[in-house]
């Protein structure tokens, strides 16, 4: 059995066959969601406490912690990161 390795283009979603523009948007959402998840886990609080701090329902915190990327827009994630005290910077190449 011969295994063939493929070199990644740098975006897992594009590697999976999504069109480049859609893959870029998916990667942006995923990156923001992971940053928010890490910040919330770092705090070590209960979901309801985190929800109260961010002004959103507890179910939304659960969606973040379970990485339900499809449930959040980029602008919603940027807003939540801002409320969590994080600064979001954007770089275009």
Which series of helices and strands comes N to C?
Answer: HHHHH
Q: What's the overall average pLDDT, rounded?
A: 91
Summed up, the helix count is 5
Strand content: under 5%
Measured distance between first and last alpha carbons: 40 Å
Summarize the amount of helix as a percent range: 55-70%
The dominant shape is elongated
Structure characterization notes:
The chain is mainly α and 93 residues long. The chain has five helices and no strands. It has helices at residues 12-15, 20-43, 47-54, 58-65, 74-83. The chain starts with 11 loop residues before the first helix and ends in a 10-residue tail after the last helix. The model has no long low-confidence stretch (mean pLDDT 91).
Comma- or semicolon-separated keywords:
single chain; 93 residues; mainly alpha; 5 helices
Lay out the secondary structure.
Layout: H1 12-15, H2 20-43, H3 47-54, H4 58-65, H5 74-83
Helix pairs in contact: 2-5, 3-4
Q: Quick summary of this structure?
A:
The chain is built from five helices and no strands. It has 93 residues and is mainly alpha-helical. The termini are far apart.
């Amino acid at each position: 059995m011969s295994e063939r390795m493929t070199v990644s283009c740098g975006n897992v979603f594009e590697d999976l066959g999504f069109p480049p523009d859609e893959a870029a948007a998916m990667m942006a959402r995923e990156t923001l969601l992971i940053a928010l998840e890490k910040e919330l886990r770092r705090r070590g609080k209960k979901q309801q406490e985190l929800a109260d701090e961010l002004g959103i329902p507890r179910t939304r915190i659960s969606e973040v912690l379970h990485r339900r990327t499809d449930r959040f827009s980029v602008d919603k994630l940027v807003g939540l990161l801002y409320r969590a005290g994080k600064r979001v910077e954007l770089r275009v190449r």
